[in-house]
Amino acid sequence: MFLRMIAYRLKVLLKNRTLLFWTLAFPIALGLLFNFAFGGFDEVGKLETTKVGIVSTDEEKTADFEEVLFSIKNDGTSIYKGQRLSEEKAVKQLAADNISGYYTITPDDITLSVSQTGVAQTILKEFLNQYVQKTAEVESLLASGSIQPQELSQDLFIEGSHVEDIQEADSYSVKSFYFFTLVAVSIMYGFMWGLKNSNDQQANQSANGIRLCLIPKNKLIVAVTNLIASYILFYIQSLIILAVFRFVYQVDFGDRWLYILLIYAIASLTSISFGTLIGNLFTKWTYQQKNSFGIAISMAMSFFAGMMGSQSIKYWIDANLPLLGRLNIVNLISDSMYQLFYYDSLQPFYLNLLWLSGFAVVFVFLNYFFERKAQYEHL
């Protein structure tokens, strides 16, 4: 009887074309757009020397900046070729596409001017961001007395940062990085199946809920069978999406497939349980209101996980508010994929897995608490 209830629930869920679209077709379509948008970013590692101009009003600051800029090499070849220019000449050369951009260095600031967006311009901007960040860190260390001027070296600016990114470009895939976040978002959309379960189980929300309350079966048994059915369906959907990303869009996920399947399994349970919890918490809201709330939460998590051009915000959170990153389910999933792809050590991955498992356990326990206490004055 238990297996029969799961089979019946699967049939009901498979008839819901709207949810099938949002949890299966939509991520695949969005992945196609991602493929067009970011497919060429992996050519970063094959860049020829980028020409850049430098407009300076501070000789000492410019000399320090140039020393770091021109030290960046890939396979022994300098990444940047720069020349000092007046502002007027820099503007003219930029307009003629003779340079990819130019830095303006003043005693107070360093800015970058570009005339278009592209891989070269993105790299120039990333270098400036990291240089400014490192410079601020060094000034802070000097002010606190933690380091002495004679201890400073170029390594403070290049260690583990932009230089390594360029030198390891053959193993670094920008396309994969963006798809990791998309994978996390597509898994997070599993909350819709959990919300559907909750809506169908509540007598004040649907006719199905009324019928389920009248059948001679324990309500918790019904809830468990609904959870298992939605989990089976959504996990299969997630694997289909993963297969399309890997074999159609040619996204490199690395070779740790057992761990990838494990993160999918736990994350799918977490997202479905999260959707069920939304339904159990806001019992007086309409289904559409609860669904909109779930989408809003998912989009907020996606933004802070770096999906919408917000990578700098994600990095700032990781550096300054790591606990906030741990509370972001989308960030946990995407970071887990990232760690499996780039890191030899599995320790960071295991930590993320522990957090995701903790969320799943908490959500399931809370759903049990609310569903056990659910009562209706009349049907």
Automatic annotation (TrEMBL):
<keyword id="KW-1133">Transmembrane helix</keyword>
<keyword id="KW-0812">Transmembrane</keyword>
<keyword id="KW-0472">Membrane</keyword>
<feature type="transmembrane region" description="Helical">
    <location>
        <begin position="293"/>
        <end position="317"/>
    </location>
</feature>
<feature type="domain" description="ABC-2 type transporter transmembrane">
    <location>
        <begin position="18"/>
        <end position="368"/>
    </location>
</feature>
<protein>
    <submittedName>
        <fullName>ABC transporter permease</fullName>
    </submittedName>
</protein>
<dbReference type="Pfam" id="PF12698">
    <property type="entry name" value="ABC2_membrane_3"/>
</dbReference>
<feature type="transmembrane region" description="Helical">
    <location>
        <begin position="177"/>
        <end position="195"/>
    </location>
</feature>
<feature type="transmembrane region" description="Helical">
    <location>
        <begin position="349"/>
        <end position="370"/>
    </location>
</feature>
<dbReference type="InterPro" id="IPR052902">
    <property type="entry name" value="ABC-2_transporter"/>
</dbReference>
<feature type="transmembrane region" description="Helical">
    <location>
        <begin position="220"/>
        <end position="245"/>
    </location>
</feature>
<feature type="transmembrane region" description="Helical">
    <location>
        <begin position="257"/>
        <end position="281"/>
    </location>
</feature>
<dbReference type="InterPro" id="IPR013525">
    <property type="entry name" value="ABC2_TM"/>
</dbReference>
